[in-house]
TrEMBL record:
GO terms for molecular function: nucleic acid binding. This is Nuclease PIN. Coiled coil: none annotated. InterPro entries: RNaseH-like_sf (IPR012337), RNaseH_sf (IPR036397). CDD domains: Piwi_piwi-like_ProArk.
Amino acid sequence: MEFPGYHIVPEPQLSFDAMTPKASHIHPLQGLKDFGPHSCNLMPVDEIRVAAIYPKGTRHILEGLFKEFTQSHNPKERKRYLPDYTGFETIFKSKISLTSSNICVELEGVEFSENKSPYIILSEEISNALRTMSQRKQDFDVLAIYLPESWAPAFVDVDSGFDLHDYIKGTTAMMHIPTQILREDSVISYKCRCSVMWRLSIAFYVKGGGVPWKLSSIDQETAFIGLSYSSRLNKNTGQFDFITCCSQVFDADGTGMEFIAYDASEIESRIGDNPFLTRAEMRKVIAKSLQLYQRRHAGRQPKRLIVHKTSHFKAQEIDGAFDAVNTNMELELLQIVQDQPWTATQHVNYGKEWSVPGYPVKRGIYAQIDQQEVLLWTQGQVKLGDKNNFYKEGKGIPSPLLIRRFAGKGGWDKNCQAILGLTKMNWNHDGIYDRLPVTLGYASVLAKTIKKMNELTNKPYEFRFFM
C-alpha cells in the first residue's frame, strides 16, 4: 500500500512573558530562563508561601530543600535538554519560602503495627493533619507533604485498592488546597538536583497561581474538551456501582483548565472499561462543559469546539453532542488512539544507497490513511539547536497516534497542529512534550483519582489541585 505524501507540522511555539513582544520558544525551560513565565508581569505572583506536613525531626530536611531554590545547579542527566537552573527568583520572578513551624504540622504518632494495616495508620494521621491545615489556609499558598521511604509500606494497599497519592489529592481538592507531595527517593535523595529544582519550581509556581507558558499559535476562538470515564466495581455484586464522566475544558492556548466530574445515570452500552453515554447524557455533559467555558469568558461561547476521547463515538453520543451546541458553532469529535500497529523509520539517501539514520522520524509528521483517519507522530526528533537533534525517549522507534474523526470537516493541518501543541501543555513535569495531548493526559490522572474519591462530583475543580 502506498500513501500520499506526508506533511510536517512545525514544533509549536510556547508564549512566555505576556508583556514582552516575541517572547516565545519551543523549549519550555529555556523560554522560562530567557523571558520569565507568562504571568510574571501580567498577574504577578510575588511570593509562594509553602506550609508543610512532615515527620517529627525532619524539618531540617525541608529547610535544606528550600535553600536549594536559591542556588544554581548544573544538570547531571538529560544534558542535551536541561539548561542550568539559576534560582527560583531569577527564573520565575517570584519568591518561594517555607513557612514557620507554627503554621506547619509535625507528625509524631506514625508507628506501624501488626494489629492495623499500615495504610490505615498513615492515612488517619495525614487526615488529621490536613484538617488542621484546612483551618490555616489563609497563611499559606501551597501545602507540601514529605513522605520518607520508611513509610513506603503504607503508600499503596493492593487488596483495598488504596493509593496514598490519590487519597491526598482527592481529600485536599475538596478542601481547595493545592498540594505538593515530596517523596524521599524522587525529591530529597535524587542525584540530579538540577532536574529536581526544575520540576518542583514549575509545580510550585503553577500551584501558587502562576502560568508558566501558553501556546502561542492556536486560534483563540477554539475550545477543547477532554472526556474520560471512571467506574468502581463492587466486589460483592460484581457490578459497577457508578459511572462518572470527567469533562475537562481548555482554552485554545491550552490553559484555563477546569473539570467537572459528572455522575452519568444512563449509559448506552459498555465495552470493557469504556462506557458509552446515551444521547441525553452526552448532551448534559457537553452542555455543562460549555457552561464552564462561558463562566470564564463573560458568557461568550467558542466558535469552534473540539472534543477528544480515547474510545470511539457512538451515534447516540454524536447526536447528543450536536444537541448541546448552537448551530453557529463548529463541532469536531476526535478519537485519539495510542495502541495501533503503525510505525515508521526514515530513510536517507547517501550517494546511491538508502539507509536508516541513527535517529527517529521528526516529531510533527502526519500522514492521512483514510478519509477520516490520520497518523500523527507526537514523539520523535526535535531540533533544539543547529547541532542538537533531541529525542526525549532516547531509544526505540516512536509509534504515531491514530486520530479518527467522527464529526467535523476540512483539512487535517489545524487539528494536528492543535494536538501537537497540547502535548506541550503538561505543567506537571519539565519535559518538552508528552505523547498524548493534555486533554487526554490529564484525563487519565483525573479518572484514576476520581475512581477512589466518589464524592468529587457535579462541581468544577481547577486541575492544580490534582497535580
